[in-house]
From TrEMBL:
Lineage, opening ranks: Bacteria, Pseudomonadati, Pseudomonadota, Alphaproteobacteria, Hyphomicrobiales
PANTHER family in alphabetical order: BLR7761 PROTEIN, YJGH FAMILY PROTEIN
Protein name: RidA family protein
Coiled coil: none
Domain of life of the source: Bacteria
InterPro entries: RutC-like_sf, YjgF/YER057c/UK114
Short name of one Pfam family: Ribonuc_L-PSP
């Protein structure tokens, strides 16, 4: 690990072999793309991308709590979809989650994601404040 970088994952989000969910560096938290798995690793939402997005935002909420951040401190969102037709349902979940907070958002349609189960993946960047100096 590089000095000034902290890698972490909350206990109530499914652990992933090979990486941590969050990298804290330079006053920002970079959150790995989240998919619709519950804490036990079960897929949530079936073929319904809106239901998958709802689980993704539950995971993001847990990650924000883990790093002591609020939704209003999210400064960037990227959403990857495998089906353009799912965009309205996924957008509804994003807007419901963030309320009046509207950080920059990039939406991408891709040929596929890490598993055939995954219809949507969301990653965020969060401003967590000025890093402490030694």
């Amino acid at each position: 690990m590089h000095e000034g970088v902290t890698l972490t994952s909350p206990a109530d989000v499914n652990r992933v072999a090979g990486y941590e969910h969050v990298a804290l560096a330079g006053g920002f938290a970079f959150v790995a793309g989240q998919v619709a798995r519950d804490v036990d690793g079960n897929w949530v939402g079936g073929e319904d991308a809106g239901a998958q997005a709802a689980q993704i935002y539950r995971n993001i909420d847990r990650i924000l709590a883990h790093i002591g951040a609020r939704r209003e401190e999210v400064v960037r969102i990227s959403t990857l979809l495998v089906n353009r037709e799912d965009a309205p349902a996924v957008t509804r979940e994003r807007l419901a989650f963030f309320g009046d907070h509207r950080p920059p958002h990039t939406g991408m349609i891709v040929a596929g994601l890490g598993s055939a189960h995954v219809k949507v993946e969301v990653e965020i960047t969060v401003y967590v404040g000025t890093p402490a100096t030694a």
